[in-house]
Design goal:
Blueprint: H1 7-15, H2 21-28, E1 53-66, H3 73-76, E2 82-93, E3 98-107, E4 113-120, E5 124-143, E6 152-153, H4 171-174, E7 176-198, E8 201-225, E9 228-250, E10 254-267, E11 271-275, E12 287-291, E13 296-309, E14 312-325, E15 345-359, E16 364-377, E17 383-388, E18 391-398, E19 404-418, E20 421-434, E21 441-453, E22 459-472, E23 497-511, E24 514-526, E25 533-549, E26 554-571, E27 580-599, H5 600-603, E28 605-624, E29 626-629, E30 633-647, E31 652-666, E32 680-681, E33 689-702
Parallel strand pairs: 6-11, 9-32
Antiparallel strand pairs: 1-2, 1-33, 2-3, 3-4, 4-5, 5-7, 7-8, 8-9, 9-10, 10-13, 11-12, 13-14, 14-15, 15-16, 16-19, 17-18, 19-20, 20-21, 21-22, 22-23, 23-24, 24-25, 25-26, 26-27, 27-28, 28-29, 28-30, 30-31, 31-33
Protein name: Decaheme-associated outer membrane protein, MtrB/PioB family
Keywords: Cell outer membrane, Membrane, Signal
Organism: Shewanella psychrophila
């Protein structure tokens, strides 16, 4: 049989390993091809045309928000009655390779973001970014204090102190509403540059990123005098500066990188002073002071690298970090000598990470890793005078410099039994060494195996099982960490534990238009040697989803997930053997569905609706002779988004969104009247039960 081989055919055959050694030896190798008459300058990829200039879309939107509960802003990202936003996805490219991109999403709303990049591909890039994040708790918290938002809270001039909140005659007439919310604004600047050893070959790159975050708002706090307390609005005015820099060197089969990251946290307020709403008792003051989050810094330097040798990849990282805090102690109203002017806190952190991946043959691949981290608290230990009811107790205490060293090792093998059938198995080990803890050392051993089957058409499934056991050194109460008198008490993070877990997932496509996915997980934690404390925990979750393409223009999706967590606890009211038992049951359900219809009205209109329902329940029962129910806590919400998009012209599109949230919760902790507890002045009822609506009209234009 005779045939002709051109240059492209030979290249494809050689790359596929079809051209034999003998053929190459006979002068038919690629290196022997005669390319003298090939006009390389005429070669062109007609389908690889890069569009120059500006292209993309830009859009604006305006919405009306109807809500009587500010918590709805967590779902709508809109706090005010009217909302505005800017969206953009723009790209600019010129013939010399310079390019710039602008991405904006909901800019102007409470979850808005902006990302701008400019540079030359493979050489340098300048990045500007902005992000806004807001979290709203309530706008109906009630307080009698004046000066909310600052660091000095005072009561009205006509305030009458009393021994009980129910006897405060000016309480209800002095209440004013306030908003508990936190807002973050992040702005960043970054630059990276790539140095070329030869044209088209990267040798090393460097980068520098700076970010500032401002966090403002109010959060819930409390101030106390002996056994009497008042809920307070703590001011939040934080500034965090973060710097990251590094350099990376790259070879044919290796790379190494040196990185630095540092952060500086500043709090505008160092302390919060507040008036005592109660009658001063036991020598208590008429005004109290509490320290707020102190300024601090953190710095980390790391060296990492990776090398590839044949079918083996070895990577590693070593790092050293230090956290410091040296803000002066708050001593307002404190009449005793301090052992130092500040904590002068310092924590050193070191770590090593190693990972090996190797393919032994076509069927077997192994992975191994080792991680070491050490947290060494080098804060000076001082002798502190203990205070009880605003007088010295005659005893001293010492600050505890907690240290922890953690080592993790993992080894696993991946075996391909046949095409579409794979088996994995592994062993995980963890050891924690703690100082000044009830248990100095804990050891965890876990064996696991995973089987995956995908050889059948339209089926993909896997199942994974694991068994782990934690034990360690002798458990004994430490005077540094606790003062409990029951030797049978065990802390759940230190106690012996046996953990059994099974996971599985199945994905099936019975037709080209339908895909069904199902997954489940069950975990059992048995604290087999615990008599007082957490004795058992069960966690069952499962989820199912479906995606159905009804026709070329219509799509339907649906999903459902559920999680059940049940925990058993035992205790002793007489500091002896267990005599009461508690069960906590938590359930979370999430249901969702979506429908979209495209290409209506001569392919100009798109309609859709998305719906989500979520509900969480929690119930606690305690048995001590008789069974008592603490009552249910629940939170449930319905969220709907109905939208339509119309292509008015070739470049301009109009869109309207209607969003609705119906939310309700029931938390006894949020249902306390300002004088509901005799020795507490609370924020009042802060449960939620609302219907909120948002209508957003937006326009986008394609350049």
């Amino acid at each position: 049989m005779k045939f002709k081989l051109n240059l492209v055919t030979l290249a494809l055959l050689a790359n596929a390993g079809i051209v034999s050694t003998a053929m190459a030896a006979g002068g038919y190798g690629i290196q022997d091809a005669n390319t003298d008459k090939v006009k390389f300058d005429k070669w062109a990829c007609k389908r690889c045309v890069v569009e120059t200039g500006v292209n993309g879309t830009v859009g604006i939107g305006m919405g009306y928000n109807n809500s009587d509960d500010i918590r709805s802003a967590n779902a709508f990202a809109a706090e005010d009655e009217f909302a505005y936003k800017v969206d953009a996805d723009l790209k600019y490219i010129n013939e010399s390779g310079y390019r710039a991109t602008v991405e904006a999403d909901n800019l102007g709303m409470e979850n808005g973001r902006l990302d701008v990049n400019a540079g030359k591909t493979g050489q340098y890039n300048l990045n500007l970014n902005y992000r806004q994040i807001a979290t709203y708790k309530t706008d109906s918290a009630m307080t009698p204090y004046q000066g909310v938002g600052g660091d000095h809270l005072t009561l009205p001039d006509n305030w009458q102190t009393a021994g009980s909140s129910q006897d405060m005659t000016q309480l209800y007439s002095s209440l004013n509403p306030m908003e508990l919310s936190l807002k973050r604004k992040r702005a960043g600047l970054g630059f990276d540059y790539t140095f070329d050893a030869e044209p088209g070959e990267e040798l090393w790159t460097t980068y520098l990123n700076y970010q500032r975050e401002d966090k403002t708002g109010l959060k819930q706090a409390s101030g106390s005098f002996y056994n009497q307390s008042m809920m307070l609005a703590e001011p939040v005015d934080y500034t965090t500066d973060t710097v990251e820099a590094g350099i990376k060197l790259k070879g044919d089969n290796w790379f190494t990188a040196l990185n630095y990251s540092g952060s500086s946290f500043k709090n505008q307020y160092s302390q919060l002073t507040f008036d005592n709403a109660f009658n001063p008792t036991f020598g208590a003051q008429t005004q109290g002071t509490m320290a707020l989050d102190p300024d601090n810094e953190a710095h980390t330097v790391s060296l990492m690298g990776q090398v590839t040798a044949d079918k083996t990849i070895l990577s590693g990282r070593v790092h050293y970090g230090q956290m410091t805090q040296d803000q002066a102690f708050v001593t307002s109203g404190y009449g005793y000598q301090m052992p130092a002017e500040s904590l002068d806190g310092r924590v050193d952190m070191t770590g090593v990470n190693l990972k090996l991946v190797s393919r032994l043959n076509r069927s077997v691949r192994i992975k191994a890793s080792y991680d070491y981290s050490d947290r060494d608290n080098k804060t000076n230990v001082e002798e502190w005078t203990q205070i009880s009811i605003d007088s010295t107790s005659g005893q001293v205490a010492y600050n505890t410099p907690y240290d922890i060293t953690t080592q993790r090792a993992k080894l696993s093998a991946n075996y391909s039994i046949t095409r579409g059938m794979r088996l994995e198995a592994g062993y995980d080990y963890r050891q924690d060494d703690r100082s000044y803890q009830d248990r100095e050392t804990t050891n965890e051993h876990t064996l696991w195996s995973k089987f995956r089957l995908s050889k059948f058409d339209n089926w993909d499934m896997w199942i994974k099982g694991s068994y782990g056991q934690r034990d360690g050194s002798e458990y004994q109460a430490s005077e540094w960490t606790s003062n409990e008198s029951n030797d049978l008490l065990r802390k759940y993070n230190l106690a012996d534990r046996k953990r059994t877990m099974v996971e599985a997932r199945v994905t099936h496509s019975p037709t080209e238009a339908l895909t069904i996915d199902f997954g489940t997980r069950y975990a059992l934690d048995d604290y087999n040697d615990t008599q007082i404390g957490l004795t058992e925990s069960r966690d069952l979750s499962y989820n199912v989803s479906a995606n159905y393409l009804i026709n070329d223009d219509m799509t339907l999706t649906a999903f459902y997930s559920r999680q059940n967590i049940e925990s058993d606890q035992s205790g002793s009211s007489n500091f002896s053997t267990p005599n009461w038992f508690g069960v906590v049951e938590d359930e979370v359900d999430v249901i969702g569905a979506g429908w979209s219809y495209n290409n209506l009205m001569e392919k100009k209109l798109r309609l859709g609706v998305d719906y989500t329902y979520s509900k969480s329940d929690s119930n606690t029962q305690v048995t001590q002779g008789v069974t008592g129910d603490y009552g249910d806590y629940y939170a449930k919400s319905h969220n709907i988004n109905i939208y339509g998009q119309y292509q008015a012209t070739e470049k301009m599109a109009l869109r309207v969104d209607y969003k609705m949230e119906k939310y309700q919760d029931n938390d006894a902790g949020n249902e306390i009247a300002p004088d509901g507890i005799w020795n507490v002045v609370s924020f009042g009822s802060n449960s939620h039960d609302y219907n909120a609506h948002l209508i957003m009209l937006s326009m986008s234009y394609r350049l």
